[in-house]
Protein: Glycosyl transferase
Amino acid sequence: MSPKKVLFLVNHDVVIYNFRREIVERLLKDGYEVFISSPYGERIDDLVNMGCHFIETSVERHGKNIFKEFQLIRYYKRIMKEIKPDIVLTFTIKPNIYGGIAAQKLNIPYIANITGLGTAVENKGLLQKLSIVLYKLAFRKISTVFFQNSENQKFFLKHKIAIGKDKLLPGSGVNLDYFTVLEYPSPETIEFIFISRIMKEKGIEQYIDAAKYIRKKYPFTRFHILGFCEEDYEDKLKRLEEENVVIYHGMQRDIRKFLKNTHCTIHPTYYPEGMSNVLLESAASGRPVITTNRSGCREIVVDGINGFIVEPKNSKDLINKIERFIKLPKKEKEEMGLAGRAKVEKEFDRKIVVKEYLDQINKITR
Structure:
């Protein structure tokens, strides 16, 4: 008897390798044949070495060319006809919508994961209306829609999308064996870190504002930045580095070696998050976090216990919370980090997510 086939549709190799690798490993272990449709990235080689089949797919994450969008639906249909998967798993906006449309046209069961709604859906207007129509069309025959936070789930239910097919997950969860509690650094300097795609909506401007103010007042502080520039920030970051305001490390494969030397993660996002992986990984590593009062962030932080919550787009509030953190004794900072670890152990273990996926996949493919 030939093995069951699972097709993953993603828009970036990191989406699957960093946050769904454990699902892939379990499927391979259980005898499934795993296919991954994604643009090529360096993590694809790791996935192929694990035993996956790779199908290179062009997905313009921010493109709005209607012709190319329809091309993507046709492409998804073509690869589904060739592979004949028993089930399709989709992640992020375009694979969710266009992959969903393709799968239902071919009567293939599919499961989507809402990793965030994106600005087009969050902000009222024509794009939101169009997105709702597309989601309704794409999810008409869906088996399950996994949500990463209750705010996104309520939005879909309000607009009568996939009623009765919704399930809430603790984000992507975090691998607690990979992200272990790191020894807390010495207090000679206080090191902060921003880990994200470098774009305005992720709060990079507020982080820079805070770095400029805090570095002048507290010269023993350092402000690190990790991530690739999704918007035009390269020159600005280079200039700020020359002025000793920030230290930019670019995109990194393993953030643990940076977390090891930092005292606190700052994530001042106002982007429509699903559930922030940066916060989960930082908390799992025993690091306090400062983040915004946004869905997908506030669920991870108990204000004053394992970090601080600030208002979105508010540099002054961010500066105040950073100053509060700086003034805490080392022992209290360390206790904050350990409180974060305890919270993710209780609520955000990735094993919860893997089990939910396997339960749904086995129910559909058995």
Remarks:
- The domain at 190-347 is CATH 3.40.50.2000 (Rossmann fold).
